[in-house]
Amino acid sequence: MRSPAGMMTVCLPMLVVLTGTLSLRAADPAKPRPDVEKVSFAKQVAPILAHYCTQCHGGEKPKGQLALDLYKDEGAAFKNLDIWPRVVERLRNREMPPAKRPQPTDAERELLSRWVDAALGVEDCVRKKDPGRVTLHRLNRSEYNNTIRDLVGVHFQPADDFPADDVGYGFDNIGDVLTVPPLLLEKYLAAAEKIVAEVMATPDLRKRIFIVTPPAGKDDKARQERDACARKIIEDFGRHAYRRPLFPGEVERLASFVHLAESQGDGFDKGIELALEAMLTSPHFLFRVERDPRPNGKGEISLLISNFELASRLSYFLWSTMPDEELLKQAKDGTLRKNLEAQVKRMMRDPRAQALVENFAGQWLQLRNLKNASPDPARYPAFDELLRAAMQKETEFFFAAILKEDRSVLDFLDADFTFVNERLARHYGIPGVKGEAFQRVKLTGGQRGGVLTQASVLTVTSNPTRTSPVKRGKWILENILGTPPPPPPANVPELSEDKKVVEAASLRKRMEQHRANPNCATCHERMDPLGFGFENFDAVGAWRDHDGDFPVDPSGVLPDGRSFKGPAELKAILKSRRDEFSRCLIEKMLTYAVGRGMEAFDKCTIDKIAESLARNNYRFSALVIDIAKSDPFEMRRGRTVSRKPDDKPPAKGDPKVQPKGNK
């Protein structure tokens, strides 16, 4: 009998072919188009940058590692299109130049905006589509566990023993970083053996696999019937495991395990056991394989993915697991795209949509970091494991309510309700809540509301011994406004935690002294006011009016000149910046949905979804449906080199078909 190790040997060449011939994105620089020539970069844009920007963003040590003095003409500017949306966003929001520097006129800001919009092809969004290209996508640990649960019904989680998944663009389901280290191959083998052993030993699980009963007997008729039974079992299991119907050759190869087992006296069951292990260690199970669309002769660079590939994208987006029977049936019948909106709504009502809460919200809001938070017990004796768990549950219940009730996504910024149990209610000072069960409560007074004032977020954006306005401000810029600050300069000293220094001045005063360093001032002017707006909340999210001996001052002035006196007013300002927030959320969710980072060419898609979301009153379902209907989700960039149907797969190392690397 061939061992499981031997089966993996059969699978490895396929892994090499699959991982070696798919790539994430093309690195070819864009070329200037006629529509960009309406604004001359060299004559109009470059002088504005030179006058207002390059004193800081130029020279040998440009601030934020952004050197705008390198771009003298269109050719140079088009070699790095990704930077320009961020540049114009800072200008539009009046975050740049800093308040103390000379400011561009409104006409100059508008001219820069027009050039960037044209450069990124806003006027070409309809004519030239590029949905991007996703690398071969390995199931991450969560997806593996959920898929095994739904495929065979076992209740243990075999992937918990796998190596941790790498993270890209803030998420652990990004195809480009989901590599296959040798240790993981060993784990796949061990997991497959354990899963199949559990299935074969458990009557209820076994019934799910053995959908037909093979006859006994050694005559030709019995053997033929057993062979037919083996094929039915393999085809049914494989259709779910591979998320598509098996090809005839695949059925033949897998059925050969049954033939071999019977020929060596091990019996029908042993053959099925080996076939199951082979499928569970196949690249077609371990990876979400998407075949390159063949050129259609019309010169299009993007084509629709198959119905079964679309079903997988949907199920792993919303459920982090394999497609269910209804999705597979609609994919087979060719009705999935026609019924896409209805299917999305059905899937959002399904309990499996909790995976979107745990895996998308858990990473977007960085809730997964809560388990590593370690508030100083001497300073925060009220913090314990029950409170940590309650913090996590509050945010998960809150996100789930917005999903299930199809509320406005603006409720993430501010809402008049939340979920607490007795332990968390006591922490918040909310009366009348008893017991361990969570209940919905109405919020009054404006102190709390939305994720920004929930203890989970406030705790993960704090230091063990104190709050961190910098971390909180940075978190808002990254996850709410979509305008992350650049990395801090090297060798910048940490804020002193010396006891005498701490007792001598408030945190705000010490921060003011810290950002007197001109290398730090620009970014801190954006981050610090946002963070100080939530200083009424201590490092574990409890309300306070004093920080030690000093009264808390939660007021601030934003770079655009708007001021606030506390968290309620700051939340109102952030909610008024709904366009920035919605675009940030769209980019985060689209990244999670397709499993790749956003590129300059995705701006058209994000613009379109943002416009639709606003028209639909920012309803959560509108966001999810528009993502599912978007070009990056439904389509895939074709290969530049095509093959005839009877051609062999390209050899690894063939220079004509080498994937283009990431920038």
Mean pLDDT: 86
Q: Approximately how much helix is present in the residues? A: 40-55%
User: How many strands in all?
Assistant: 10
Beta-strand content estimate: under 5%
Question: What does the overall shape look like?
Answer: globular
Oligomer: single chain
The DSSP helix count reads 28
- The class by helix and strand makeup works out as mainly alpha
- What summary fits the major beta sheet? 2 strands, antiparallel
Low confidence ranges:
2-37, 641-663
Distance between the termini: 47 Å
Strand order, largest beta sheet: 1-2
Overall radius of gyration: 28 Å
Describe the protein in words:
The chain is mainly alpha-helical and 663 residues long. Among the domains are: 34-120, no CATH class; 358-487 and 495-576, no CATH class. 48% of the residues lie in helices and 4% in strands. It has 28 helices and ten strands. The chain has helices at 4-20, 41-52, 74-77, 84-92, 106-119, 141-152, 182-201, 203-209, 220-241, 248-263, 267-280, 283-286, 307-318, 325-333, 340-349, 354-364, 385-404, 422-428, 455-460, 469-479, 499-504, 507-514, 518-532, 567-576, 578-594, 603-615, 620-628, 631-634, and strands spanning 137-138, 287-288, 302-304, 417-420, 439-442, 546-547, 550-551, 556-557, 563-564, 635-637. The strands form five sheets. A two-stranded antiparallel sheet has the order 1-2. Strand 6 (546-547) and strand 7 form a beta hairpin. Helix 7 (182-201) packs across helix 8. Residues 2-37 and 641-663 have low confidence and may be disordered.
